[in-house]
Design goal:
With 417 residues, the protein is α+β, with helices and mostly antiparallel strands. It has a domain of 262 residues. The protein is built from 10 helices and 10 strands. The strands form 4 sheets. The protein has a 4-stranded antiparallel sheet.
Length: 417
């Protein structure tokens, strides 16, 4: 006891220190647990706040449904528009997909309608060709080539001939200038591919006749887009001099030239070539960078177009050719109310620009004005949406393309005329 009493001042602080130490250990442990619990609580609170902020409103599903319905409507509208692009007016409502008469007279009627189309194109364009020898002969009489022929060197006769040649040249120039002031573009029916197809046509059975009508119809639809392009660009012009597009050299469906020269005379070929479907690469007019071929959704046709155009309007012509156009539709029986649809079916695959030598025989008697002009040659792709016109496509055409045979191999599809 004496020991305790003597050392009480040391024992009591020591005891307090030991007790404090014993109390510190659980306190530290408890604080760590509290901090851990607090961290969890804070994290949970943040998660709750985030969930509250990002919670989907009660009516959100209705908004999402409207959004998805709008997308579905857009897809359906696109599907409808692409189908409408290939629903076009027909030259005859008696032939496709099968003739509704047994008489071959319906094909003669189609031929008449087909031939009238090209005259209609010329009227729409307000076009004529350059003055012909016959036209000039009526104006001045005699040989219209005298102004371009070699001259004699025999005294007075030579002088008289020279004087007459100069006079004839002046008259011819006046006639040519008058022509370019009467029209907005140079063109004639022969520059359209297939224009003469029905001139030598023979009836070789109903299936073949229907095929000929079908490809002729395709040609008319494509030609119409070219004519509409020129009409649009030349709108407001009253003369060739004012027009951006000066001359339509040709529209063709094969790789031949639309025009050629023979001596000093320009000769426009009677092209009887009709369109063909591009179901194989070798059937195209050029390498197709789009990679498109006839398939379950589309049919493809290639064509070429050549024009003399003002050099600064080359790009405008290409843009207009590939632009959206409108057409009317009366149903495939021709009995429905008129509907106006839109189509945009042309893609330029290849372009070539050449200078125009106005002194060459190809441009003799054509007057383009003082504008710098070029010859623009394009190879184009034309797309037909099958959903729009497969219902009237003849069985003979489908058979040739392998479209009425399930999973027909591409190699079985062959070119036809």
């Amino acid at each position: 006891m004496n020991f305790i009493k003597k050392n009480l001042n040391i024992i009591i602080p020591s005891a307090i220190a030991v007790i404090a130490l014993l109390m510190l250990i659980p306190t530290v442990m408890l604080r760590g647990q509290i901090n851990k619990d607090l961290s969890k609580s804070i994290g949970l609170g943040k998660s709750i706040d985030s969930a509250i902020r990002s919670a989907v409103p009660q009516k959100q599903f209705e908004v999402e449904k409207q959004y998805q319905d709008a997308h579905a409507d857009d897809a359906n509208d696109i599907k409808i528009l692409t189908a409408q692009s290939s629903r076009r007016s027909l030259l005859s409502y008696k032939i496709f997909p099968d003739p509704n008469e047994t008489s071959i007279q319906i094909f003669n009627e189609f031929s008449d309608a087909y031939k009238k189309v090209f005259a209609g194109f010329i009227d729409q364009l307000s076009a004529l060709d350059a003055p012909s020898d016959i036209e000039i002969r009526k104006e001045i009489g005699g040989d219209t080539t005298s102004a371009r022929s070699g001259r004699s060197s025999h005294g007075r006769t030579s002088a008289r001939n020279d004087a007459r040649d100069d006079k004839d040249s002046e008259i011819i120039e006046l006639i040519c200038k008058r022509r370019c002031e009467e029209i907005t573009v140079y063109a004639n029916p022969k520059v359209f591919g297939g224009n003469a197809f029905w001139d030598t046509w023979e009836y070789l059975g109903s299936a073949q006749a229907v095929r000929d009508c079908w490809y002729s119809q395709l040609a008319c639809w494509i030609h119409q887009d070219v004519v509409d392009t020129i009409t649009s660009l030349n709108g407001g012009s009253s003369t060739v001099v004012e027009s951006p597009v000066k001359r339509l050299l040709g529209v063709r469906f094969d790789s031949g030239d639309a025009v050629f020269t023979r001596g000093s005379t320009t000769v426009v070929q009677d092209d009887i070539g009709l369109p063909i479907y591009v179901s194989e690469l070798q059937l195209g007019l050029c390498d197709d960078w789009t990679g498109r071929l006839e398939n379950e959704q589309i049919d493809i046709v290639h064509f070429s177009v050549a024009v003399v155009v003002r050099s600064k309007d080359v790009l405008r012509f290409m843009q207009e050719l590939c632009s959206e156009k409108t057409h009317t539709f009366y149903g495939y029986k021709g009995t429905e109310d008129e509907q106006e649809f839109k189509h945009n079916q042309i893609t330029v695959l290849k372009s070539d620009i050449e200078p125009v030598d106005v002194q060459s025989a190809l441009h003799d008697r054509y007057r383009y004005g003082s504008d710098a002009v070029v010859s623009l040659n394009l190879i184009c792709q034309y797309i037909f949406n099958r959903a729009g016109y497969d219902g009237i496509k003849p069985e003979s055409v489908k058979t040739e393309l392998g479209q009425n045979v399930v999973d027909a191999p591409a190699s079985s599809r062959r070119r036809g005329r």
